[in-house]
Amino acid sequence: MNEWELAGILSKALVYLGMLAAMGGSFVLLLCRRQPALMLLITRRFMMPALLIGLVATCLYFLVQVGSVNQRGIAGMFDPLIGSILVDTEIGSALRWRLAGFMLALLCLMPLNFPGVGLHHRSIQAFCMVMALAAAGSFMLSVSVQGHSSALSMQAQGLVAFHVLAIGCWAGALYPLYLAVAADSEQTANTQQLADMLQQFGRYAWVMLTVMVITGVSLFWLLTGGFGTLFSTLFSTLYGQLFLAKVLLVAAMMGLGAVHKFRWVPRLRGAAEQMPGNSTMHHLLARSIRLETGLAVVVLLITASMTSITGPQAG
Predict the structure, then answer these.
(1) Which of 81, 111, 146 finishes a domain?
(2) Quick one: 5 and 38 in the same domain?
(3) Which of 44, 102, 212, 274 has its CA 20 to 30 A from that of 55?
(4) Which stretch of DSSP H or E encloses residue 203?
(5) Which of 159, 160, 156, 256 is nearest to 205 (CA)?
(6) Same domain, yes or no: 142 and 3
(7) What's the structural domain count of the chain?
(8) What per-residue confidence (pLDDT) applies to 220?
(9) CB neighbour class for 227 (10 Å; exposed up to 12, middle 13-18, buried from 19)
């Protein structure tokens, strides 16, 4: 792996981070729409920084691709001729969709940063919803026009788009949920409301996970050519080995999610009823969500590697 490949992986991982923050963060904002203070916390502590990082990383990723083709060091990243050529390729198409997605997501957050704007007004809520959905659609299109699936059928492009949407709404929601739990541990008056939100997220999460698994397995099947080459691809290629590592990490995340749903959240609710003011369960749940978030970051790096330096047919 050379320096351009490494830079491409890191910048793409940051792009993915921003995309997940937009989708998952917006989903959590929808769940806590009756809690303005929590919405503001998630917006300022997570979504705004992550979206700005994703916006910058999108531009950086394009410049890295220009530099990789030019092979003249950092100065080569700003070659106008190579840049104008790449703009007309799938790399340029993905760049445009991602920039549009991040700008729409930032527009969605604008009302949250103006204290005088009434978030309870239906027109404001409708504006935010439309911007969030448009941003998600832009990100879905960005992954369908670039990558291994872009050379396949519309079916494969649709699978990768909905795969990204599902994992974005699930994994992208983890850190906002951690912020919600951590904030409530300092002021436990709203613990029942927090438990309701976590329980509601748990119900939707299984739908997201079902879509994620079905689309992910189907996409891998299409990319590897079916059952005949499945096992040889899994164990004898770098792509297959990275895919196995990704599956194991996602399985671990799903296991932690099940523990949250069936153990920690009910105990959090019970503790709020029996021992008001006790934040022990908050700390245990926050620590578990933080671990799950760390696994998600590793999955992002693996995914960026799979889509940057190797492919289904690579040895």
Answers:
(1) 146
(2) yes
(3) 212
(4) helix 191-224
(5) 256
(6) yes
(7) 2
(8) 81
(9) exposed
**Closest residue by Cα to residue 24 from 183, 196, 165:** 165
Per-residue pLDDT of 20-72, as tens digits, reads: 999 999 999 999 888 888 888 999 999 999 999 999 999 999 999 999 998 88
Tokens 């523990």 label which residue? 259
Residue with tokens 């330096």: 309
Q: Which pTM value belongs to this model?
A: 0.90
Length of the chain: 315
141 shares its domain with 31:
yes
Looking at the structure, tell me whether residues 191 and 245 fall in a common domain. Answer: yes
Token pair belonging to 140: 């879905």
Q: What is the mean pLDDT of residues 15-21?
A: 96
Burial class of 226 by CB neighbour count within 10 A (0 to 12, 13 to 18, 19+): exposed
Q: Please give the single-letter amino acid code of residue 217.
A: V
Per-residue pLDDT of 108-150, as tens digits, reads: 998 877 655 556 677 888 888 999 999 999 999 999 888 766 6
- Among 97-111, 134-148, 153-167, 299-313, top mean pLDDT goes to 97-111
Q: What is the dihedral sign for C-alpha 132, 138, 142, 145?
A: positive
Provide the token pair at 167.
């994992």
- In the numeric block, the tokens 């083709």 are attached to 69
pLDDT at residue number 151: 63
pLDDT of residue 315: 39
Provide CB contacts within 8 A for 47, sequence distance 6+.
21, 22, 25, 26, 29, 105, 109, 176
Can you give the pLDDT at residue 226? 65
Q: Are 285 and 265 in contact (CB under 8 A)?
A: yes
Do 234 and 255 lie in a common domain?
yes
Query: Which among 105, 126, 146 is the end of a domain?
Result: 146
- Collapsing DSSP to helix, strand or coil, 54 comes out as helix
- Tell whether 97 and 110 lie within a shared domain: yes
Its domain, for residue 183, covers: 147-315
Same domain, 121 and 184: no
C-beta of residue 168 within 8 angstroms of C-beta of residue 139: yes
Distances (CA, A) of 139 to 2, 20, 26, 143, 212: 28, 9, 14, 7, 16
